[in-house]
Structure formats: C-alpha cells, structure tokens
Model the fold of this input.
Amino acid sequence: MIALPPQPDLDLASLVRTIPDFPKPGIQFRDITTLIGDAAGFAESVRRLSARAATYHPDLIVAVEARGFLFGAAMATAMGLGIVPVRKAGKLPGVTIGVDYELEYGTDRLELHEGAVLPGHRVVLVDDLLATGGTILATADLMRNVRAEVAAALFVIDLPDLGGSARLGAAGLVCETLIAFDGD
Done:
C-alpha cells in the first residue's frame, strides 16, 4: 500500500465538480466523484475527517448510506475502529432496528443491525453531504434509541443555505464539515 503524504494546503473544494440543473432545473449538484477519484484529494479528505473525529474519541464510526460509506470506511480503517452502516429499509440482512423520519414529501426509514451499536458506545456519524439535515437527525435518533452517545456528525460538504447545519445545531448535535458551498 502506498501512503500519500498529508497535503494541508490542498483545496478540496476545487476537486468537487458542480453539475448545473441536476437532478432538476435550478439545482447546483455538488458531485464528490471527482474528489474521490483524485487520490490525493480523497486521502486528504479522509485525513481531515479522521483528525476531527479523533478529537471526539469515538468507539465506532457510523456511516450513512450510500456515499457516507466511502468516507466512513476509510476513516474507520485509518483510525483502527469498526464501522456500522446505516441503510434504508430492507437493505440489511438479519434482524434490524430502525427509525422512520419525515421527508419533504413523505417518510422514509433508516435501519442498522441489531447489536451493532451498544448502549454506551460513543459514535461519530459520517456522511458526504449536509443539506437539510433530516437523514443525520434520523440517524442520531436511531443512535439514541440504542442508548449510544452521538459525539458529532462529520461531513465533507455543507450546503448552509439549505439549513442543515443550523438544524443540527438547534437539535444539540455537534456538526463539522470540510467544505461549504453557498447556493443550492
């Protein structure tokens, strides 16, 4: 394995591609595939997220479907921790526990394997992008339901105009991001 040297001056935002009018007109989609496709950019993202996560002394990394898995798995490996995937309903085999949450137009459900996170575990939640905060708030509720302690939620990208970081703060959840993009 080749370890890339730290690049603290690397501009991660410059590695995120913006796709206009996707998935609908007026949306500026922030595409991380260009960031993760750049070896130095992906490595530096993982380093920065891991360094932040380490300050919270987690027992586990809890990663949210689907792109959160990419960063969460790399972080867990770098930090010598286990990773727990949180998935949409029906995606995990075996016995699961879940939480329903509100979407703009309906509801959805997130699940994890029963026993994957135990009472008293200290966890850091990880996802690639923070928009409205609904998915992470539901994940935090799921962690509270199993009596785990949510130390923080970490993201690569924040879209602050959509209110997610403010919403997480109002719910008492510590939130950190590597990059913020104004606009949708």
